[in-house]
Structures are given as structure tokens and as C-alpha cells.
Amino acid sequence: MIRLKNVSKYYKKKEGAAVSNLNLHVEEGKICVMVGPSGCGKTTTLKMINRIIEPSDGNIYVNDKNVMEQNPNELRLKIGYVIQKIGLFPHYTVYENVATVPKLLGWKEEKIRNRANELLKIVGLSPQEYAKKYPNQLSGGQKQRVGVARAMAANPPVMLMDEPFGAVDPITRNQLQNEFLKIQKKMKKTICFVTHDIDEAIKMGDKIAIMCDGKLVQYDTPENILFSPKNEFVEEFVGSDRALKVLNLLKVDTILDTSLPKISIDTDSDVLKKLALKGQDHVVVLDDEEKLVGYIKLRKIVERRSLEKWDKYIKRYVSTIDEDSSLKNAMVSMLQFDVFNIPVISENGVYKGIVNFNMIKSYISEEYETNNIVDKVVG
Ligand SMILES: Nc1ncnc2c1ncn2[C@@H]1O[C@H](COP(=O)(O)OP(=O)(O)O)[C@@H](O)[C@H]1O
Ligand SMILES: [Mg+2]
Questions:
Q1: Which atom of ligand 1 lies at the shortest distance from residue 44's CA?
Q2: Do 216 and 329 belong together in one domain?
Q3: How far apart are alpha carbons 265 and 37 in whole angstroms?
Q4: Same domain, yes or no: 184 and 36
């Protein structure tokens, strides 16, 4: 879908190449993350794909068409672009920002309005509340959401994203990444995603292109980058904490605890008494669609004798996480909410099990001792 063949860029001949003889192929529907230290040529590469910068040498194909043989303006309308540092138009409202490309494409007013509203919802901003606001009335995370919505407005099959979540705090970034991955699961765009953050690369990339001084050092899956770094540069760039980085790759279902008894809200109080007598401390309460309602600390309420109206003792979990979250997401939530247990739920709220801090800890240390984790991650 995106193919770079021997692409080079010299800004000034005598200074050497900003990008040097780059070969890269991004498959349809996949995210390729370009990562490397500042100045290694990531932005230059991205901008050559939509011809904001002209390559000095080599060829670039988008959807099997040579970009140099296309009108640059038309080309850019077909490629979604999230600019480094967001770059919203400050005098346009959120709505006008999102509507930019559809307007240029001559869409009808109503179609633009529907699409803009739909997109604002997709990126988690209520149109009623945000459409009329100006960029300076938004937080960093909200601006980045608008930037992403703007790039997706005309539903381009290809997207270029230059450090799209760079300007926010780690917790917001984590949320934006998760939301984006969820959107991508449905939309399956072909994406070139630039970051200088290897953790983000590991999390977001189907493949990672590690760059250094304008050259591609390794182009591989996150697993191979972590476990078979090609040289010292990659090894150092990935960092000595790869044990922790593996948490990004493992999903919560690897250690999901499904052993807690589940009861429904209309369960008879005798059942609870029996569970308590068996020494069960904790039960999960679900509604009749298996959706999570909360939990009950059994021992405490059994001591209170009257169990007739046990449902008033149901407590809510302060946080839940999605079933396709990584163990890293689980850890982040635990730290954020200061809890040791987090229930895992499906997209429609159905309870799947619990992840527990100590389980993550012992899993990682055990697996590292036996080196099983390498097999597990690499498959
Ligand atoms: N417009 C420009 N004119 C001259 N040199 C540039 C220009 N833009 C970038 N460079 C140089 O090209 C190299 C790559 O820059 P860039 O692609 O922005 O890197 P990255 O996005 O990886 O930080 C750097 O050495 C940078 O100084
Ligand atoms: Mg850059």
C-alpha cells in the first residue's frame, strides 16, 4: 500500500543525507511505526510520502501509484495527515478544523456535518460540547483528538501520523493510544506512524522501522525488535527494561483469573451464606446479561446476620479494563486508581475475569527465570 524504494533526501548536498536510501513497505491495513532519535529523518520521510517534501532520489508508491506522477494537492486530499505538534487552525472551530478536507473535496454541507459529528464521537468528544470551541479552549489531549479526527475526515485509506500523541501526559497518551487502536481494529487503515518513543512503537506497531541518521536500521515485528535486536544501536534504543516492555505485548487474558464465584443480583441469600461458610471472601455480582455490577465482601456481611437484602452491600469496582488491554494497561490502571485487582470486561460490559497485581509480578519473574516468555511472545 505504501512502498518506498531507495528513497533519499538531501536538504543541502554538503551536509549529507537527511534520509538515505530508504526501503520500506507498509502492508495494507497495518500500522508501521517509524521510531528513532530526534533528527534521524522520520518527519522528512513522512512528508515525502505526501509530497510536502520532494525526495532527492528514489521512488514512492501509494496504492501502487508513483506519488511523483500525481498532482500533489489531489494526493494530499487522499492521505490523512496528523502533523507533528498537532497544527490545528487556531481561527477555525473544532468543527471547521475537522471539516477542512471534506470541504475541499466539495462534499455537501449535510454530509460534512454528519461525518464531522460522527468523527468527533469516535474520538471521544461530544459534538454538542466541542464542535463550536476553538483550539485554545481545549486541553492537549482534546487537541490531539481533533487532529486525529481531522486526518480521518474524508475516510482516507492511508494515514500519516507524526507524533500524534506526543504532547500529552503519559496517562492521557495511554488512553489515546488505546482508543486509536480500537478505532484501527475496525477501520484498518494503512498507517505510517512516527514516534521517538520505543514503548509507543512497541504498542502501536504491527511493524517497527528503527531509524538512525537517516538510515533504516531494522524493520521488523515488535517481538523481533525486542528479542532479536539487530545491533547494539537497536539494543540500546530498546533499553535494558525490555522485561517491562514485554508487558505491552502480553494481553490481560494471559493471566486472567476466572475463579471468583459469580452470582446474579437475584441470587438467593442462602447461596451467599453457603459460599461464606466455605470460606469464600469475595464474589462478583453480574446482571442477567452477565454484565459486571460490582462485588461483595462476603465475610463482612455474613457477620451482620441479616442477609435478606444483601444487594445493598454491593460495591462497585473503581476501575475496569477492556479484554484486549495489555498487561501494561492493567498495571497503569492499578497505579492510577491505587488498587490491586481490576476486573476485565468485554466491549459490551460482559465480565471476563480479574487481573491481579501479584499475578502479573510473579508471572513476569517466573517466566523470565525459565525464559518461557520469549516462546510465548514470539509464538
Ligand atoms: N527544511 C529543512 N532544511 C534543512 N535541513 C532540514 C530541514 N528539515 C529537517 N532537516 C534536517 O534533516 C534531518 C532530519 O530531520 P527530521 O526529518 O525532522 O527528523 P525527525 O523527525 O526524525 O526528528 C535533521 O538533521 C534536520 O536538521
Ligand atoms: Mg519529527
A1: 17
A2: no
A3: 54
A4: yes
Secondary structure (3-state) at 20: strand
* Residue 373 clears pLDDT 60, i.e. is over it: no
Of 255, 196, 201, 193, residue with least CA distance to 223: 201
352's enclosing H/E stretch is strand 351-356
Cα of 70 to ligand 2 centre, how many Å? 25
Residues 215 and 270 in one domain: no
Domain shared by 234 and 284, yes or no: no
Q: For 82-119, what is each residue's pLDDT tens digit?
A: 887 778 999 999 999 999 999 998 999 999 999 999 99
Task: Determine if the pTM surpasses 0.85.
Answer: no
CB of 239 closer than 6 A to ligand 1? Answer: no
**Residue ranges making up the domain that contains 309:** 253-367
Q: Of all protein residues, whose CA lies closest to atom 14 belonging to ligand 1?
A: 41
Residue 108 DSSP code? -
Could you tell me if the CB of 42 is within 6 A of ligand 1?
A: yes
Q: Ligand 1 centroid vs 161 CA: distance in angstroms?
A: 16
Give tens-digit pLDDT for 116-158. 999 999 888 999 999 999 999 998 889 988 998 999 999 999 9
Domain co-membership, 111 together with 181 = yes
Instruction: Verify whether ligand 1 is closer than 6 Å to residue 43 (CB atom).
Output: yes
Confidence of residue 367 (pLDDT cuts 50, 70, 90): low
In ligand 1, the atom with minimum distance to the C-alpha of 19 is 14
Tell whether 130 and 13 lie within a shared domain: yes
**Closest alpha carbon to 66 in 20, 157, 3, 159:** 3
Q: Which of 175, 206, 240 is the last residue of a domain?
A: 240
CATH of the domain at 327: 3.10.580.10
* Ion ligand 2 contact residues with beta carbon within 5 A: 43
Pair 194, 166: CB distance under 8 Å = no
| More confident position, 11 or 375 | 11
Residue type, 193: F
Which mutation among 8, 10, 11, 162 tests ligand 1's pocket best, with the greatest number of atoms within 8 A of CB?
A: 11
Same domain, 268 and 172: no
